[in-house]
Amino acid sequence: MSIFEAHNMPFAAAFVLVLLLALVQAIGLGDMFGGDAEVDPSTGVEVDSGMQPGALDGIFTLLGIGRVPLTIWLAVFLFGFAAIGVSIQSLSDNLLGAPLYRWVAAIVAAAAALPLTGMLARPLGAILPKDETSAVSTDTLLGRRGTITDGIARRGSPARARVQDAHGQAHHVMVEPHEPSSEMYAGDEILLVRREGRQFYATALAERRLSPQA
Hints:
- By secondary structure, this protein is α+β, with helices and mostly antiparallel strands.
- The strands form two sheets. The chain has a five-stranded mixed β-barrel. The protein has a two-stranded antiparallel ribbon with strand order 4-7.
- The protein is 39% helix and 20% strand.
């Protein structure tokens, strides 16, 4: 079965787009495309480009959007989409004697590629080199107030929080409770108290009844 057969055309197009994205990155044109997450070079903390946290924030986290540059995320998704799609068509041809209608196969492949991309984004984000995009060190976030945007922060299970630096620039960080038995929920106000590597630890303002930040 050839990838260039009619029932595989969506997946052939995806492979071509992956090659084009690789070429764009290789010749240094990747910065021309907007939407890449701004990331602190030492910690991998995402810098908010102005979007306010909302219902989509948790979905983006699950899909891995923001953990790696958008062009890298798109390349991983397209490659997974193409590989899964060709496999589906080959399996269907072997079992049913004919491939699926190409757009049906494309929908199934896209649905499978999205969670796969989210799973791969975390380890990729940890190993990919990061370009410096902010002069503000995330060490300056310690002692700043923030808000849990989604998830439940427990010891060993971080949640995402939004914190503003002294210049009003918003950063997204992953936080765990400073107190082992504490839990922090979406919407809770927190205070960043320490950092170990890329992991921030925070205490809930209501829990400790801390005074407002100056």
